[in-house]
Amino acid sequence: MKPIELLRKLDAEAKLLEHIGAALGWDQETYMPSGAIDERADQLAYVETLAHEKATAPEIGRLLDELGSTEAEPSGPGSLPTIDRAYLRVMRRKYDQATKLPAELVSEMARATSLSQAAWVDARKHNDFKAFAPHLSRMLEYNKKVAACLDPSKRPYDVLLDRFEEGGSEEQVASIFGPLRVELVALLDRIRGKPQIDDSFLRRRCPAAAQAEASAYFMRALSYDEKRGRLDTTAHPFTTTLGESDVRITTRYVEDFFPSSLFSTIHESGHALYEMGIDPAPEYRRTSLAEASSMAVHESQSRLWENTVGRSLGFWLQHLPALRQIIAPAVDGVGLDEFYRAINKVEPSLIRTEADEVTYGLHVILRFELEGRMLSGDLSVDDLPAAWNEGMRRLLGVAPKNDAEGCLQDIHWPMGSFGYFPSYALGNLYGAQWWDAMKAQGLDPKAAVELGDLGSILSWLRSNVHRSGSMYKPGELVEKVTGAPLDPSHFVRYLNDKYAGVYGL
Amino acid sequence: MKPIELLRKLDAEAKLLEHIGAALGWDQETYMPSGAIDERADQLAYVETLAHEKATAPEIGRLLDELGSTEAEPSGPGSLPTIDRAYLRVMRRKYDQATKLPAELVSEMARATSLSQAAWVDARKHNDFKAFAPHLSRMLEYNKKVAACLDPSKRPYDVLLDRFEEGGSEEQVASIFGPLRVELVALLDRIRGKPQIDDSFLRRRCPAAAQAEASAYFMRALSYDEKRGRLDTTAHPFTTTLGESDVRITTRYVEDFFPSSLFSTIHESGHALYEMGIDPAPEYRRTSLAEASSMAVHESQSRLWENTVGRSLGFWLQHLPALRQIIAPAVDGVGLDEFYRAINKVEPSLIRTEADEVTYGLHVILRFELEGRMLSGDLSVDDLPAAWNEGMRRLLGVAPKNDAEGCLQDIHWPMGSFGYFPSYALGNLYGAQWWDAMKAQGLDPKAAVELGDLGSILSWLRSNVHRSGSMYKPGELVEKVTGAPLDPSHFVRYLNDKYAGVYGL
Fold first, then answer.
1. Domain A203-347+424-470 coded CATH 1.10.1370.30
2. Which residues of A touch B17 (CB under 8 A)?
3. What is the pLDDT of residues B169-199, one digit of tens each?
4. A246: chain B residues, CB-CB within 8 Å
5. Nearest to B283 by CA among B467, B463, B71, B70
6. Quick check: B246 and A47 CB within 8 A?
7. Which of A385, B319, B363, B451 is deepest in the core (most CB within 10 A)?
8. B284, B469 in Cβ contact below 8 A?
9. Is the CB of A35 less than 8 angstroms away from the CB of B242?
10. Is the ipTM reported for this complex over the cut 0.90?
11. What is the pTM of this model?
């Protein structure tokens, strides 16, 4: 067996264990009886430990070292094909990230994280930031240590960000978020000057069974392959990959707010279509190359389907008649335009996960700024609540009444995750840039949506974004596909055009 | 760590992998999307191989050898508690069965079995026994080899039977089945002299949703712990153990025959109650001691609940009113006696799995006789169809029109399983003997059922049968609990009493 093949084989074994873990995790969230939780935790820990062992096997390190020298001479006689060189990049990165952290740090951090999360749940419940502050400090310290282990030559935030957005840096993200913030604040300001939309009909009662039927309808409309996945209900919607032919999604049915399941199903379907669309060729199959280019690119898929497609006028021109039938009487007497405006209502709010397309980015930008400042030492943990509240007023014009609906709302920092937040907003930017690239390449996605031809959009995304998995870093991918680096102007133009119509600006 | 504790730890690791395999298997049968089958097969094979490696680790052999000498001197100074000695018996037996077969034989046999099963599916479809005969011969040969590897000093059938019924022998089973056969044939003959029961109302349409509600009702009635298990639907009902606190059952809903789901749910609940009732003490927890005493004892639990309890007049005196409500109008206008007689209709038929309480044992006895004769060389494979048909006429008075509804009906022989069939009938005998032991020990189970007090029956079974897991061999268990060896007269008396009433004999 050639070294590269042996590497793929070892990688596939770790991947298989990851998929088994995903199956156990999916079951835990969907159907597992409550009394089984302790045993399931032991089973999951066992599988994860084994997967980690496989992924960090010294044999992989030796193969990477051996193959590494070849990588350096792409045109030499012993050179490897481009795809193999990309694979070595991906594997080297994963291996380093998994092996560079001392076991002691990993286990200390796991224990501290578990305590931090428990303290956060409590602090949020009792609106007591002070009780959580020492844990947050500890999480920051551990993240600095992690960054120092992974790459002491770089700034900590850059190292942490790179784990989710390969090749990204605080400076690059700031250069994108800066102009984006200005534009979002300006657009929000213009919307504020207009009469607010009445979306009260969205609160009409709609039974879970009807919502489930609607979810199934929209999954079919998006060409989600039901032979390779399924939809179930969970407390929090998610997408999980149990294998290249088993990508499951979940949703939840809120009986007095049907848009919740509607758009979460479309959102998760977007994630699943990405996973299902990765090249099944032997170089990808069951390897680490069959993963998303980045978290932000993943989010570009879910948000493109949820918002750019799913909240467009053309989409509902096509699908509102069917929805009317399926969830009757929930939208009886509601016209297309009224429906379209209601699902696109913009309203500054306190909670990120409930935010609309315009304000969502501002929530993320605030978190990006604050976590960067905390990591650089420019902002102390004790000053976080005040800085948060000031930021909310400045960006969104609203102020939390307490920290529970302020800086304690997200689980990310309590679980020690710094550098992840930007992905949420970058996803929207990638999405808008893909959309404009379709147009530049002769596909009119808006017309396709109006004609109910979602297939041509999916085909384009498959060929250009899905198929190559993690072969390209996100920055390389966007240049390759659109001919330019990531540029917020696509998203800004999209929002300005859309909301000019929605609010008559 | 003491050697016995180390042994438990190694055992628990193999057990955990078994449970993970059960979770993957359960998912495959219930919710897995069809396209995932190939990957799931690889995942299951991986987990099973790993579980086998753990269960056959040389370390276990060394520990057993080390501890074995202690076992021999139960009263010596270094002696072990009774429960530890029982554990060593169980582990030694498992370890020997898993390690005594040469790897080459195991893999050859796996390949041959897979071909045999495929040939059987085809032969059954085309009613072509001749095409399957060479595979059956091969399965017999492999089984003889297996028996020779496990214990060359014993007769092959005894070795094979012992795998499912520890300590059993062909001679012992024959001595039980002999008188049982005579009694069953005589009872059947008397029933034949009476007018047949009209059970046509059982074919009234009953929607799956109503049947599901009935299943849930009866699971609650039996005290099935819904925090430690759940019910789902599959093509063939089964019980599976994903952990000591996760024992799931399945059923299927036949809309024009509601008794199918009703009694299969009760049957599988009986299996699950056994698994859930095993002692959770540290000596048992997640070890091989937390397994059933034998397949037949397992079957005694499912059949006791399904038939002795679930098809009794007292049970329906208590529960028919509720069933009426739940599955209305399926049993509208049907009186208690009419219902009771219909669910106990006796009718000789060709297919074992559809047989009633009286004829079921005769199907099993025929298979026991034929597989014993084939293994001893007394019956050739080519002569099997004729011997089968002759046996059916002799025992049941019916004759298959073809081999598909004759000797090709069961999957057991095609999959190389010989010595398993007796467990099905022995289960009924154990069940009747437990029932009579309850009476002898002052509990009146019939009165308890009539009063809706199933809890006292469950308590008795837990204390006497469930709790000890595989601490006792089945022969030891029945002696310990009832004061006598397994004796078919309990079951015979039960049937004669019951059917005297049902048919007015």
1. yes
2. 46
3. 999 999 999 999 999 999 999 999 999 999 9
4. 32-33, 35-36, 39-40
5. B467
6. no
7. B363
8. yes
9. no
10. yes
11. 0.94
